[in-house]
What we know:
The protein has 7 helices and 2 strands, in the order ββααααααα.
Amino acid sequence: MDILAATYTYRTTTYTSPYATSSVDATQLGAFFAGFAIFFITMIIIGLLVNMALTWGVYKKGGYKGWEGIVPFYNNYCLYKMAGVSVGLFVVSIFIPVVNIYMYFELAKKFGKDPIYGLGLFFLGIIFMPILGYGSAEYQGEVAENTTSTTDAATTTATTEAKPAAETSTKKSDAEETK
């Protein structure tokens, strides 16, 4: 006697089990898991795109390129450098993620915010990070050296070209004084 059968007979009476099981073949089960996997991967991609859009502004304000916020591990490395926290603590944070809370406190300070804002960055980053990146907060730390705008490059070139001319004119005036 099969206990999970839909109907069974005991002596002369036929009973219907309330625990009757329906048969699911392998193709239906495979289709279900394939659909679930596609849905799951799609949600991960959408999440990454949303995260990229929300953090882009923070990296730009800190002097980094926006794409540096997408690369796993390197994005946290850049945040640690922006916050002015040691790279050794970054390595520890890979294994103990709670250490990131200190980095978020320091990052909030670099943007002129309270340490409480750092807690918001840690627990509700999806809300607080775009406020930091696209709001009125200004980055008050040292801007990263790996990005220079065209105006900075033009200013540097003009200053470099102006120095030899100024040095030459002082050398001429020194020569005229000695005569």
